[in-house]
Structures are given as structure tokens and as C-alpha cells.
Here is the input.
Amino acid sequence: MARPIQFERDDVLEKAMQAFWDKGYNVTSMSDLVNVTDLRPGSIYAAFDSKEGLFLATLDHYAERSVTKIERALTETVSPLEGIRNFFRKLGRETAGQHANRSCLLVNTVLEMARQNETVQKRLNRHLGTIEALFLHALESAQTKGELSPNKDPKALAAFLMTSIWGLRVLGGTNPAPARTRSVINQLLTLLE
Amino acid sequence: MARPIQFERDDVLEKAMQAFWDKGYNVTSMSDLVNVTDLRPGSIYAAFDSKEGLFLATLDHYAERSVTKIERALTETVSPLEGIRNFFRKLGRETAGQHANRSCLLVNTVLEMARQNETVQKRLNRHLGTIEALFLHALESAQTKGELSPNKDPKALAAFLMTSIWGLRVLGGTNPAPARTRSVINQLLTLLE
DNA sequence: GAAATTGTTGAACGATTGATCAACAATGGT
DNA sequence: ACCATTGTTGATCAATCGTTCAACAATTTC
Here is the structure.
């Protein structure tokens, strides 16, 4: 062995994530990252290879956090359908809250980088797929429990819900009135009935 | 009078638009813009003040194009509701086509810049509002003609459709299978029934 | 406690960024 | 024909970008 690493990896990832989330990949400079993480360039490069490497690690960190949050929202109630409604109501409140306007790091990245960076695109699709699977599972178990009509297609609905989340994230970027966000959510939730 | 301007403003805007659309605001450099427009920096700054000024002019140009396209799609048929379905089917085909993956300049910009640049945010909201008004008008006239149930709320539906467009644009960024896009569109269109 | 190994530091690298400007070109007015 | 005015050009600006690296620090092994 030799000199041990001095920083907490998760701590650094959390701080870098906030920076990327705030400003996007391109606008966040290494000097920004040095400031927020309190690491020197050399340490960052030793640990993450490059700015892109740090960003990919950050994406993973964000996805982990998100999956946990969504899983919790979906299983807070006994009813899977109510869980989904729960999730969207929370999302609506976030969109209107003080930290509004931040959209979602994954969605931001789809539009900012995915087209130009295959590595990022693949990583994103993996994470988004994981999240979609959570909704699919909830929809299927809703159907099993008889909450969701048997003639509905859970896969199609899961894809639709994902698209709706993305749309709501963009909506958040337009600084909408809370009532507007609620209205949109009410509309899309009627598809589950 | 003095020396006349040598370039076609619309031609320059179209070329700059393609550049910004391809790569986003931040990644598109002045040197990129000099290359695609075939103007020298001085001419660009004389005509548009700054990179941001050129971008704002580009947004206006894009919005103009979009409004025309959407207006045409919505009025291609006698039935306003069929016009809306028309629009979404076209959007679905674009998402899968060769120029797919480009999303929409306005949507890209919402997530890339709006939060950090109030001027851009306001301009965007104006353009998006114009587009939403087109859908609202189509929905209202559908209701007048009896195509849309009187107990539906055109304003709520218009907001929902806008959010759906945005979601579909993000979906496009994930390089989806055409069937997936079609499925999502079918789902969201059922809200008009 | 010396050697080997790995982490940390901060200055520095060349490249590129958005923007400026003096010199020059082209027009209309007189 | 000359002047006033405005457009164009291309070199150039300081600032910042992502990245590297030699010097130094901290740890384990023997």
C-alpha cells in the first residue's frame, strides 16, 4: 500500500453533481469543479481520468439517488396505482418549489450531450431503462391486483409515463404557474383510469 | 447612405440556426459561426451585437419556421382534431427519421440556457406561447364543431399537448425504436377522445 | 528508518474562447 | 472628385478552457 485517498468519493460526487446539475456539462469548468469539490486538478484526474469521466461517475451517482427516491415514492402506499399518482404529485411540487427549474440531470443531459457522445447516450439509456422498469413493475402489479384495467398495455403506459416525466421536466424549465403543472399532471394521470 | 450590407439576413440566420441546433449554444463557437455563415467576426458583431444576440435572432427565425409548419399541419384537414393527430404523427416520423435526434431548438434551449439567462427564457416562453395558442385554437374549434366532448377543457388539453411534445423531443434524444414512439403518441392521443 | 508506492499540490501548458479594432472598401450626397 | 458614412476584413486581444507534471506528502513493507 501507499498513501491513502483523502476524500470521500460519494461526497465529491455529490458536490460535482450539484455543479453539473446547475449549469450543465459544458458550462461547468474544471475550475468550478476544483472549487466545489475542494480537490486539486491532479486528484480529480487521478480518480476520474477526465472531466467526462467525472461526469459519467456523477451520472451514475444521480441515477442511484433517483432510483431510490422513485422506488420509495412508488411503494409508499399499498396501491401501486396510488404510488404512481404519488410520484407525479411529488414531481409537480418539485417543479414549483424553490429548487424548481432544475429539471433532471438525466433529461438535461439527453438534450445537451447524448447526440454528440455515444458513451453518455448509452449510460443514460441504461439509467432511464432502470427507472422505466420501476414504473412497468408498478403497472403490472396494479393490473394483477385489478386496479388497472386488463385491456391496458403496461409497457405502452410505462413508455408514456416516462415521456410525460420528460415533458414535465421541460415544463419546469419554462417557469410555469403551479396550477398549470397540476393541470397537466391531472390530464396525464387520467390515462391510468 | 453608405456601403450596403452584403449578406442575406435570412440566409445567415438559417445557417447559424443549423449550427446552434446541431451542437447547442455553448458548444457552438464564434469560429463555427464564422465558418457556416461565411461572415467575418466584425460583420457578425456589427449585425447582431454578440453571440447571444445572434442566438436570439436565430431563435426568432426558428420559431417563425415552426409556427408556419405547425399551422400548416393543423389546417391540412377540415377536422381540427384530425389536424392535431396529423401533427403528432408527423412529429413521430421526424423522431425516427434521418434528422432524428435533433429534438427541437426551443426545447433544447429551455434546458440548456433558460435557467441561466432571463432574456432567453422570456423569448422562449413567448414563442412557446404562440405555438400553444395554435393548439388551443384547434381544440376550441374542435369543440365548437362537436368533435371534442364539451366536458373537456381545451386550455388544459393544450397545456398537456405542449408537455407531450416536449416529452417526445426528449424521447427522440434517446434514439428510440419507431414503434416505441408510435406507441407513446397513440397513448397520448387517446386523451382527445 | 530506508525504499517503494501512491496521493496531493499548484504552477504551467498549448489551445480555444468571445470579442475588438485599425485598416480598407463601397456606397450616396454634394 | 471628394467627403461622410457605413460595411468588411483579418489580425489580435485577454481570459479561460481541459489537461499535465515535477515536486512534495503520506503510507506500507522489509
Summary: Chain B has a mean pLDDT of 95. Residues 1-4, 6, 29-31, 41-42, 45, 50-51 of chain B lie near DNA strand C (CB under 10 Å from a C1').
